[in-house]
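**User:**
Make up any protein.

**Assistant:**
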Amino acid sequence: MATKSQKRKDKDRIVLKAGESQRPNGTYDYRWTGPDGKRHAVYAKTLEELREKESQIQNDSFSGLKAEARCVTVNEMFDLWCQIKRGLKDNTFENYKYMYNLFVRPNFGKKRIYDLKKSEVKRFYNHLVDERNVQASTVDTIHTVLHQVLQMAVDDRYIANNPSDGVLKELKQSHIFKTEKRRGLTKPEQELLLTYLSTHPTYNHWYPIFAVLIGTGMRIGEICGLRWCDVDTVEGVIKVRHTLQRIYIIEGETRHTELLLDTPKTANSVRDIPMSSELLKMLKSLNKVVNENYYVISNDIKPIEPRTYRNYYKKLCKQLDIPELKFHGLRHSFATRCIESKADYKTVSVLLGHSNISTTLNLYVHPNKEQKKKTIDKMLRSL
């Protein structure tokens, strides 16, 4: 048995434990073999600091966390997530990567994931909303990808708990995160818009896309990706099979955008929409090109991208003194007209391509003052 004098000591004559050693420069290290059979090491300036780290390592071991957990950064975990993630559409995946690289990576991406606290995530989201004026939908997207990355770290035993759990819910409940309810055009506004476009000698070539939007409730990307082979003028049906959108591509340090013709947003978005007689007549008059692969709106082999129409729509609303609505408000207008005509909600949901009827009810069903009054009157008459 070794005597006390034979035990290893540092320069201050303090006895070192198994695995501890003092380096020539006076700093300390602790080396051990993990359950995986791999050798690991941590370093510290003082022996006291080193033993704090040893205690944490032992606690992590009891908790089932990996020995290398303290070395992995948030960025490294995100890069791993990108390598193994499956089941996302290309445009969704590219958008997730773009959002992460733009907002998270430069903020706390280099931070060790083990040290990331819930308060830091909360402070980060507050910073995005309060100081950078980031839209609610963007924060939602950032949280979606960050939460998945951190949850993978939990599942792989790098951390015990997900520091982003519940953070977005708290933010959504605060007044700063509340968003205006979506609304569509009123009947007079809709009539003004369509009449102006159909009769104006300069802008009448814009009429088809607005007529299709308001007459079918299709998404702008679905209309821009619509080709003549998708329009059945015999049956009077539009077949939604594609969507066109500009996506961000990140390759190393370079970023650029590309137009992508992809499948629709969800499986329910693949649908057939019957056309009104007026819409059918208008599209028949436009179909003067034999090539069925030409895009309907551009009548060319090259499409016109969605942002072109968004920019024009914004100017048009200002010109006609219509309260500025997002372009998506035209889709909302279609849903509103359907509901006003007492169409059943399930059919409206199918026409819009929603995955479930609750989406339709939550986003598009907003009883107006007249509808509320009729409901109360009907109730009183039944007494």
Observations:
- The chain has three domains: 8-69, 74-165, 187-369.
- The domain at 8-69 is CATH 3.30.160.60 (Double Stranded RNA Binding Domain).
- The CA atoms of residues 201 and 207 lie 11 Å apart.
